[in-house]
Amino acid sequence: VTSSSPVRVATEVLLPSYRTRYFGRDAEKETVLQFARGSGGQLLTVTGAGGIGKTRLVIESLTHADLPRVV
User: Fold this and answer.
1) How many Cβ atoms from other residues are within 10 Å of residue 31's Cβ?
2) Can you give the pTM of this predicted structure?
3) Residues with Cβ < 8 Å from 54, sequence gap 6 or more?
4) Closest to 45 (Cα-Cα) out of 56, 33, 62, 32
């Protein structure tokens, strides 16, 4: 690191909360959690048609996970 290099500071990531209850998709949630726990920081890409709940699936999976929330 030189004096002209920018310093990156880890910041806590706050996930959004929802007012509606989330149910089902337990197998998919477990797949996301398994990848998050064993990925070593790799990027996870969730694909699918618009409006099927990709973002909500990941947020619900990681909200209750015991994982560090820093980027």
Assistant:
1) 15
2) 0.66
3) 46, 47, 48
4) 32
pLDDT digits (tens, 9 = 90+) for 23-66: 888 999 888 888 888 866 678 889 999 999 999 998 888 887 77
In which residue are the tokens 């890409």 written? 45
Contact, 59 vs 28, CB < 8 A? no
Residue appearing with tokens 């398994």: 34
**Where would I find the H helices in 16-53?**
26-38
Please list the helix, strand and coil fractions of the chain in percent, rounded to the nearest 5, in that order: 30, 5, 65
Residues sharing a CB contact under 8 Å with residue 52, sequence separation 6 or more, in sequence order: none
Largest CA distance in the chain: 51
